[in-house]
Amino acid sequence: MLYAYTLNGYWMDVGQPKDYLKGLHLYLDSMAIRQAASLAHGPGISGNVLVDPTAKIGEGCLIGPDVSISAGCVIGNGVRLSHCVIMRGVQIKDHTKVDLSIIGWGSRVGTWSRLENHCVLGEDVQCKDELYLNGAVVLPHKEIKDSVPSPAIIL
């Protein structure tokens, strides 16, 4: 048998990181129309940005577009975030840039680091200072001590 169900909203498959980030973009666009007051506004915020009220944002940050920052996150001074999801309890240290990436629960990204090109950090990933991660997919509970200059899976 084949069944169908009509949804009163939007549905998409977000099983791949790039699709998850596309879904975030579409969701935040929808929020801008229907719940604009829920989105962050102010100095350093551009485009659609969702920030949990318990998150702490440092001075001189540039955040957006298409960013979601979850509960209990600590974002250091001078951080640049764009097109990314920062999950619960993440710490991003000063002067780090995160673009097109997903940072998993309880992870820590060191100072002066750069993550881009669909990086995905699993839960509790610890990245040392001054690292470059390009398309790295890091499994949970790992410590990253060296840069990952080309896309790779870190087991």
From TrEMBL:
Q: Which InterPro entries match?
A: GMPPB_C (IPR056729), Mannose-1P_guanyltransferase (IPR050486), Trimer_LpxA-like_sf (IPR011004)
Give a Pfam family name.
GMPPB_C
Identify the residues that the record assigns to the Mannose-1-phosphate guanyltransferase C-terminal domain, covering every copy. 45-154
Q: Which GO terms describe its molecular function?
A: nucleotidyltransferase activity
Matches recorded under PANTHER family: SUGAR-1-PHOSPHATE GUANYL TRANSFERASE (PTHR22572)
Instruction: Specify the protein name.
Output: Mannose-1-phosphate guanyltransferase C-terminal domain-containing protein
